[in-house]
């Protein structure tokens, strides 16, 4: 069965960076795009960007350019998202999600990782 | 960016009732629309894609319809496990955008 296992809860200081992981299993990692989504507490969903694991091509929501960087390690079927220069506005739950196309619906989601930015 | 306006923001319904949630796009999205269910503390789960196609394993009491800029999600015979928030998403154009969500509660 398709599973996306994300790393655990993070508490980080303002100004720092953070790298989150998303390990895929149950399907061929390089056959699907990997998406990243942000959800602030009690809020809606924001698309951050995607990466194509077979060639490393990325695209980002303009709002997250310079904030988020997506990478993959195909040897371990793992996608990563680095968040830089963290502020309280970055406190949120971050999800990875699979899609069949770069622009498409998200058919499986990770469990999410809660990031809290606080001094 | 394409704006997705979802209504209502919250909804209270009784067991067995039929519920409809609407989503309006700021421009034609040519059926590039998905619906997700999110239970408290959980990740979103795909229900419907391409406006009216049921995702694998989703109960048949869920259905989607619409075209152009107007889309809806219908839940027939509401069950207790349907208590959740529901979001629409357009994927016709970049960036993907989501509706603000509808919180469904039991009356």
Fold and architecture overview:
The complex is a heterodimer of chains A (about 120) and B (about 110). Chain A has about 120 residues and is mostly beta strands. Helix content of chain A is about 0%, strand content about 50%. In chain A, the strands form 2 sheets. In chain A, strands 2, 4, 5, 6, 9, 10 and 11 form a 7-stranded mixed β-sheet that branches. In chain A, strand 4 and strand 5 form a beta hairpin. The mean pLDDT of chain A is about 95. With about 110 residues, chain B is mainly beta. Chain B contains no helices and 11 strands. In chain B, strands 2, 4, 5, 6, 9, 10 and 11 form a 7-stranded mixed β-sheet that branches.
Task: Give the CA-CA distance, first to last residue of chain A.
Answer: 40 Å
- Most strands sheet of chain B: 7 strands, mixed
Instruction: Please work out how many helical segments of chain A DSSP would assign.
Output: 0
Query: How much beta of chain B, percentage-wise?
Result: over 45%
Q: What is the overall shape of chain A?
A: globular
Radius of gyration of chain B: 13 Å
Concise description?
The complex is a heterodimer of chains A (119) and B (107). Chain A has 119 residues and is mostly beta strands.
How would the blueprint of this fold be written?
The complex is a heterodimer of chains A (119) and B (107).
Chain A: E1 3-6, E2 10-12, E3 18-25, E4 33-39, E5 45-51, E6 58-60, E7 68-73, E8 78-83, E9 92-99, E10 106-109, E11 113-117
Parallel strand pairs in A: 2-11
Antiparallel strand pairs in A: 1-3, 3-8, 4-5, 4-9, 5-6, 7-8, 9-10, 9-11
Chain B: E1 4-7, E2 10-13, E3 19-25, E4 33-38, E5 45-49, E6 53-54, E7 62-67, E8 70-75, E9 84-90, E10 97-98, E11 102-106
Parallel strand pairs in B: 2-11
Antiparallel strand pairs in B: 1-3, 3-8, 4-5, 4-9, 5-6, 7-8, 9-10, 9-11
